[in-house]
Structure prediction request, 278 residues.
Amino acid sequence: MSHQEHVIIFCGHYEGIDERFVQKHVDLEISIGDCVLTGGELPAMIIADAMSRLVPGVVGKTKAVIEDSFYRGMLDNPNYTRPALWQGLSVPEILLSGNEKEILKWRRREAVRLTLTRRPDLISRASIREYLSNGVNIAVILDNADLNLHGLKELCDVYSLGRPFLIAQSHELREAAKKICPDAKILGSFEKIKKLSGDDALIIKVLGGARKNSFHSLEIKRKCLEYEAGKIIFVFAQNESALEKISGTSGYIYEIEKNIPLNIKIGIALDRFLGIRN
Prediction:
């Protein structure tokens, strides 16, 4: 709405606005929550104020708007001001350290904590990638030389992922993988990924649909946000039966065409797990 040239807000009274008028003239209906008021004037003021903050120049620093709650789908972190000690309560020590990198990590971590505690419903549409501070990679288990991996590097760049891992047991597969995805790290077994990433990495095996003991994409987002021990690795396979041989959490994307190219399947999965939902 902040990008519109002209916005007209109609304020309903009593039961609202005549439904015939709504059907003929209204483009968007907005609720400010589960409450009943005597009129729409107060909600209109809230909408106008929230909308105007997004207009360039209204708020002094654009960064202040970007860090607000809901901008990325998550709640904002807790905020503190002076004095450092107030009625026996202290400002978290990290905020007084001057270490901007660690302060940012604290803010991201606290935003996750508040969102999971107060508004877990937001996670379904939140963009969570920047809240995962320990690194995220994808690994692909290959079983034939007909590889659908074009655009894999671009996908990793879009979601700020580390260098992709490709697991190819045969020399033929490794050579084919190098030609199609030269930026990938080619390995002979999945065990070598664990050596590179650490034993505390969260391994998520990605399936094309629901399976026994698997987790919906929303639950996987929650697990990723709650995990702080190490890296997160999403594992794909041309033949999903290969995933049964490795240990890890099984997550699934929605039922999709079985014969869909692997690179498109990876893109769909990354969007489900890391992207923002409208």
